[in-house]
Write a structure and sequence with these properties.
five-stranded parallel sheet, alpha+beta, Rossmann fold, D-Maltodextrin-Binding Protein, domain 2, single chain, eight-stranded mixed sheet, EC 2.7.10.1, 8 domains, glycoprotein, nucleotide-binding
């Protein structure tokens, strides 16, 4: 509500005389006419009239104009910006149309913009409201659109800027974290300086997103205001009682606008409760200074007292400020209970209302200076009245008057707004240092270096004082004691993260400097990526942290120790040492580089044996480990352990005479404390004296980095390294009081780590200041890591850069211990090709050794302890031991190969003789013994027609005479005359299996003829052949319109056939057999159209385990196989259920080939990946469910056979044809060459070729061959016999094309297969024997991976007929 357009006018009725009443009515009528509208209400014994004026609510935004000149300040104001989620946002302040609030808001906005530098600042004006809830709603973010992609993530930022949880899983610390870079909802207004809070109002409901912990310093109230001069001695002190009497000396009239009726709606209830004689009118913008001036002094009618208007309004207000008005007093607000209608008693409306400041909670994080300034903003009563007087006296009341008055007040009240200053205007950044300052006595063996702490503080102070970097920021250092203990470092890491979240500096934390020890780095380096926290170590040399995929936020200013391998390798080669040993603690991260060293030495022909001792030992004694090295004759020993273990090792070496005086050479770490060997300072240590330790250490060597640059080098601060080291020494002497503190070799690395952070942050903020808003944001940390990787400067420790990886490079110094001090004897300068992550290469390094500086205790350099085990042979061949050993091994190996070849030839000859004897024995021995009771006299079998070619021979139709049944139609399988014993066993294996079965849905074995050749197996005759041919031949009947249940392709017929097969499978399952090849081609149809399972060549018993595992090479029907059979070779009844599902697919599609359009290999990968055949369209839901359950990935979730039978019985018409169009029913691997898969020993194929081949090219036709797949087949060789048949050799036990035979046919249509099933086979040239001189006869079979390819002449048309 605009203060000029929304005034409230009130008057009080005078004496109840009739002329007075007339006057009052006339005056009220006049005011109502001017107001254009009115509403009336009347109490019990009086009348109350209410009128209102319609206005519109308008929300507007404006920017803050300039006020001060640049010359008015003696300091430079740095621009400040507010970034949220890396996007700049305006600092939005909310105000109302009330002039006092607008003036106050503009004054503070000028302060923020021109004195604090917040250049992007907006003031949003909303209609007047005295309801705190409505004010907060105006400030809250817009409600999210329900049509958006999803709800924004919400985080309770009042509690923590991130959510994380630590858990231990299998001994590993696992961190679950939600980083604080989640999207933040920006409120429409971030600040409101003047929110009227009624007495007793509970503000907790308003503080979800906003806080109100400070007040403006003044308050306001509502009231009935009347001229003070009307008060006379006889006037009632409790003013409100004057209006309950008709003899009041004042007019009775209220006025306000209808737009703010929600503010004054309680007036009606108040008037009724008071039983006051009041008329209320709303006159809108007409209530102004002119109106009050003209109507505040009204003469009464003749003989009556002076009268005046009564105004309902609020205070402070520019409307009442120029006038001497007093407010009517009402009874005090005693009961502040909120009523059911959400309102409080009217008396509370007239109590003092506090002006609360509401601030968006996240301002503390995103605009800290403004946040602090808002809390300090206060205006007392005098300043407020002065401000309103200034506005009322301002001549120009244009739209710019508010800005002009606010600017005028700011210029004339400097002492007031100076108290609003937030203090320092530098953004605070936190940096955490983890140092091994101290440890418990029991862990004294750990590395302790408190001398790094002063270097850390020196670096932070230098950065803060430097005016060229991070000019708007100030780094606050935090120091934590890690004690070189992994558990303690991890605990400190967790605690500082928790503290940063609770104290609000998590997003302003730069990162960690440290820790020092490699063992302590891995835990926090691994989890730091979950918190987007970088870590720069100054002392962790372990080689395992160079993998930036696992440790993306880890860097170090110290090189990693795997560079030592080049130094060791080069030095050992120069000295000619071939045998080296190492002694280190098991599980120690620092010594991980020894693995890389072993590989490097192995390349150079140097042996490195690694000996490790456990971390937890019963005694500190190391004698047993040293004896192990001594017994193995190792003289060059690399020791990597903590200094307390070093004392034990060197002391024990002294007693075992394994020191430099006995030609032993020890390599020890150089990072031990300077006096680590001074055991006289350790009263409890009595094994050795310091003098003995000196003697034992004489001549030992160590490697170290170059800790500091050259003294004359200029570092990052513009001073020399020597000057810095002098300052560091002074700092150590003045700040570190403990007796164990001394200058640290790692101080330079620590100092440079701080500067690495500072320079990288400075570059980052200069490129995009928005990054400073949230250092934990994903994009910020990514950009930060790039800046660190690109950093390059000259530090205290030398040149710092990470171009080769997460670790920097520096020189390696070789030291020798001579006369109680270390002497530099060599230096290694790594070239750029030695990268942090690169593999070992032949590199051109600069390694200088000063042999004149060496001092060996024995006077000669040590030897490696090598001895030659074949010394005599070495002298005989006149070669060095290593070369002599190679020659000897070669001779021995050659002799062994020759001996094995001779043995092979002998055993091969014996085997061939034995095989001939066995075959001769089988020729003389009848086979009927294994078929006792199944033998049929050959004269009772009559063969009258040829049905086709089988794997082992010809299949005939005929009749057989039985004693009980007479002559019965049968099918007779024959085996070729002259077959081998192996072929006979394979041929009879199916019959051996079939004799166990007797079921109406299993093809029945009737007998065998084995006493003479050819061998017969006699089975019941199935008139319609296999089910696939049956279905293919009847595809054309599917589309006939008039079909009934008796038709051959009816739903009932198809379902009945599926039921027959299921019953056969149930029978096999009861007998604990698994078929392994359930498919339409292996189901035969008899004259009654009963379907029976056949072809038991792959059937196997499951024994007691209920499964059969296939573990030899051979052909398998991959397209029908279950996933567990493909991957593990396991066959169960459940795998037969999968194949049964494929069979149902064949029935539904009338013989369509499974997995259309996919090669054998593609099918194999497709099924392994968890996919199945696409369900045919248009099938019934019950069948859809059955197929899906049959093809379930988990075998135990597939249905039992009996469940399938019950399902088919329940739905006798379940299966209906689904033919979208012609589909392939055989597999064609390629249109150019036909790839045929060959099994190991399951079935065979013969190619019948007659002498008419030369005439068939013009009169033959083509057919595709059914394509089962095979796996891991052996190579094949074949030859062509004179009669055109392929004969098998010893390595060709079977040739199988998955139940097909290939033969030459005459021209003509095949009644069973449609024309689409013919294909040209182009590669194998077959010519009769008499044409050999014209064309070379060839039949090539070769192995290609898992395939066997047989080439057939393109001019030969072959017909593939399923058996």
């Amino acid at each position: 509500m605009n203060e000029h357009s929304g005034r409230w006018l009130a008057g009080v009725a005078g004496r109840p005389c009739q002329p007075c009443r007339t006057f009052l009515l006339l005056l009220a009528l006049l005011l109502l006419v001017r107001a254009t509208a009115g509403v009336t209400s009347e109490p019990q014994h009086a009348r109350s009239q209410v009128t209102s004026l319609q206005t519109h609510r308008v929300v507007s935004s404006s920017t803050v104009p300039s006020c001060f000149d640049n010359t008015e300040f003696h300091r430079e104001v740095k621009p400040q910006r507010l970034y949220v989620d890396e996007k700049e946002q305006p600092l939005t302040m909310l105000t109302s149309s009330r002039v006092p609030q607008q003036l106050m808001t503009r004054m503070v906005a000028i302060f923020l913009k021109e004195l604090l530098g917040y250049v992007n600042l907006t003031i949003t004006t909303v209609p007047d409201t005295f309801d705190p809830g409505r004010v907060i709603n105006e400030m809250k973010p817009d409600k999210q659109d329900s049509s958006s992609s999803g709800p924004l993530p919400y985080v309770n930022w009042g509690a923590s800027p991130f959510i994380y949880e630590f858990s231990v899983v299998n001994g590993t610390l696992v961190v679950f974290a939600n980083r604080s870079s989640m999207e933040v909802r920006i409120p429409k207004a971030m600040v409101s300086l003047e929110v009227w809070i009624p007495p007793g109002y509970n503000v907790e409901s308003l503080t979800t997103d906003f806080e109100t912990s400070s007040y403006l310093g003044s308050g306001g109230r509502f009231g009935w205001f009347m001229p003070k001069r009307l008060l006379r001695p006889d006037f009632i002190v409790e003013h409100w009682r004057s209006f309950t009497s008709p003899n009041s000396p004042t007019l009775k009239l209220f006025s306000r606008t209808q737009d703010d009726y929600n503010v004054t709606k309680f007036l009606r209830g108040q008037i009724e409760a008071m039983k006051a004689y009041v008329i209320v009118s709303w006159i809108g913008p007409n209530l102004n200074h002119k109106f009050i001036k003209n109507n505040s002094d009204l003469s009464g009618l003749e003989g009556e007292e002076e009268r005046s208007i009564l105004i309902f309004h609020w205070w402070p207000s520019v409307l009442l400020q120029p006038f001497d008005f007093i407010s009517v007093s009402f009874p005090p607000c005693i009961d502040r209970t909120i009523k059911a209608d959400g309102d409080s008693p009217y008396q509370c409306k007239y109590e003092m209302h506090r002006f609360h400041k509401f601030l968006w909670k996240k301002l503390k994080r995103y605009a800290k200076f403004a946040y602090n300034a808002f809390h300090k903003v206060q205006v007392n009563h005098t300043d407020f009245m002065d401000l309103l007087d200034t506005y009322n006296m301002w001549k120009n009341k244009s739209s710019l008057a508010l800005d002009e008055v606010a600017c005028h007040w700011m210029k004339n009240n400097k002492q007031r707004w100076l108290t609003w200053q937030p203090g320092s205007t530098l953004h605070q950044l936190k940096m955490v240092g983890l140092f091994p300052i101290s440890t418990e006595k029991k862990n004294r063996r750990k590395f302790i270096a408190p001398g790094n702490v002063p270097a850390y503080f020196m670096a932070v102070e230098a950065v803060n004082k430097n005016k060229s970097i991070l000019t708007d920021f100030e780094i606050h250092p935090i120091v934590l004691n890690g004690a070189c203990e992994p558990a303690m470092v991890m605990r400190q890491f967790i605690e500082i993260l928790q503290m940063s979240s609770s104290q609000g500096f998590y997003n302003n934390m730069i990162g960690f400097v440290g820790p020092a020890c490699s063992d302590t780095v891995e835990p926090i380096a691994g989890v730091s990526k979950y918190f987007n926290v970088p870590i720069i170590s100054y002392g962790a040399e372990g080689a395992i942290f160079s993998d930036q995929d696992h440790y993306p936020y880890f860097f170090r200013t110290i090189p990693e120790n795997k560079i030592f391998r080049y130094v060791y390798s080069s030095y050992f080669k120069r000295e000619g040492w071939k045998r080296v040993a190492s002694l280190t603690e098991n599980g120690q991260r620092y010594s991980e580089y020894l693995t890389l060293l072993r590989d490097k030495l192995q390349e150079d022909g140097i042996e490195l044996e690694t000996l490790k001792y456990p971390q937890e030992r019963k005694t500190p004694d190391m004698t047993q480990y040293l004896l192990d090295l001594k017994n193995k004759n190792y003289y060059i020993i690399i020791g990597d352990f903590y200094q307390d273990v070093a004392r034990e090792v060197i002391c024990d070496a002294y007693h075992l005479k394994m020191t430099g005086h006995q030609a032993y050479l020890w390599f020890l770490p150089h990072w031990f404390s300077a006096d680590w060997y001074d055991v006289d300072k350790v009263p409890s240590y009595t094994k050795c004296t310091t003098a003995q330790m000196h003697s034992a250490l004489q001549g030992h060597m160590s490697l170290s980095y170059k800790y500091f640059a050259e003294d004359n080098d200029i570092m990052q601060e513009g001073i020399t390294v020597a000057e810095w080291r002098k300052l560091y020494s002074q700092r150590i002497n003045t700040t570190v009081k403990t007796k164990n503190a001394s200058e640290s070799d790692y101080a330079g690395f620590t100092y440079d780590a701080v500067w690495t952070y500072a320079l990288a942050l400075d570059n980052l903020f200069k490129k995009d200041p928005s990054y400073a808003a949230d250092l934990r944001a994903t994009s910020t940390i990514g950009a930060f890591m790039k800046e660190i990787s690109a950093i390059s400067f000259n530090g205290v420790s030398g040149h710092i850069n990470f171009s080769s990886g997460a670790s920097r490079m520096t020189d390696i110094i070789v030291w020798q211990f001579q006369n109680k001090e270390y002497v530099e004897v060599g230096r290694f300068h790594p070239p750029p090709s030695v990268s942090d992550t690169g593999e070992d290469k032949e590199i051109d390094f600069n390694f200088k050794i000063n042999k004149d500086r060496f001092l060996w205790p024995t006077g000669e350099k040590p030897v490696d302890g090598s001895t030659c085990a074949i010394q005599a042979f070495s002298e005989f061949v006149n070669l060095e031991c290593a070369y002599a050993l190679i020659v000897l091994c070669t001779l021995c190996f050659g002799g062994l190969i020759l001996l094995l070849f001779i043995c092979f030839c002998i055993f091969k000859r014996r085997y061939e003789k034995k095989l001939e004897q066995i075959q001769e024995l089988w020729r003389r021995r009848p086979l009927f013994e294994i078929f006792d009771g199944w033998e049929i006299p050959r004269d009772k079998v009559v063969i009258n027609r040829k049905l086709g070619e089988g794997a082992f021979g010809t299949v005939y139709g005929g009749e057989c005479q039985f004693d009980t049944e007479g002559w019965v139609a049968v099918a007779v399988k024959t085996l070729k005359v002259g077959s081998t014993i192996s072929e006979k066993l394979d041929f009879l294996s199916e019959a051996e299996m079939m004799k166990n079965f007797e079921h109406e849905n299993i093809v029945r074995l009737l007998g065998v003829c084995t006493k003479t050749e050819p061998i017969y197996t006699v089975m019941e005759f199935m008139l319609y052949g296999d089910l696939k041919v049956y279905l293919l031949a009847r595809r054309n009947l599917v589309n006939e319109k008039n079909r009934n249940d008796d038709d051959e392709v009816s739903n009932k017929r198809l379902t009945s056939m599926a039921l027959d097969i299921a019953r056969g499978l149930a029978y096999l399952a009861d007998l604990k057999f698994v078929h392994r090849d359930v498919a339409c081609r292996n189901c035969l149809v008899n004259a009654n159209r009963t379907v029976k399972l056949a072809d038991f060549g792959m059937t196997r018993p499951m024994y007691e385990n209920n499964y059969y595992k296939f573990n030899r090479k051979g052909m398998l029907p991959v397209r029908w196989m279950a996933p567990e059979s493909l991957t593990e070779g396991v066959f169960t009844t459940m795998s037969d259920i999968w194949s049964y599902g494929v069979l149902l697919y064949e029935i539904v599609t009338f013989g369509a080939f499974p997995f259309q359009g996919m090669s054998n290999d593609q099918v194999l990968e497709h099924v392994k990946a968890g996919h199945t055949i696409a369900i045919p369209r248009g099938i019934k839901p019950q069948l859809d469910v059955l197929l899906k359950t049959c093809w379930h990935r988990v075998p135990s979730r597939r249905p039992q056979v009996l469940q399938i039978i019950e399902h088919l019985i329940a739905y006798p018409r379940l299966i209906s044809p689904s033919l979208d169009g012609p589909q392939s029913s055989v597999q064609i691997e390629d249109t150019v060459s036909l790839e045929m898969r060959i099994p190991d020993k399951t079935r065979k194929l013969s190619l019948s070729i007659n002498n008419r081949l030369q005439n068939v090219a013009s009169s033959s036709r083509k057919r595709s061959m059914s394509g089962n797949m095979v796996m891991n087949i052996p190579p094949l060789t074949t030859s062509l016999s004179e009669d055109g048949m392929i004969s098998a050799h010893s390595n060709l036990d079977a040739l199988n094309l998955n139940h097909v035979m290939v033969e030459e046919n005459e021209m003509g249509e095949d009644p069973l297969l449609p024309p689409a099933q013919y294909v040209s086979s182009r590669y194998m040239s077959l010519t009769p024997k008499e044409h050999k001189e014209k064309e070379k006869e060839s039949l090539v079979s070769r192995q290609q991976g898992d395939y066997c390819t047989t080439d057939i002449s393109r001019d030969l048309w072959t017909n593939v007929t399923p058996v």
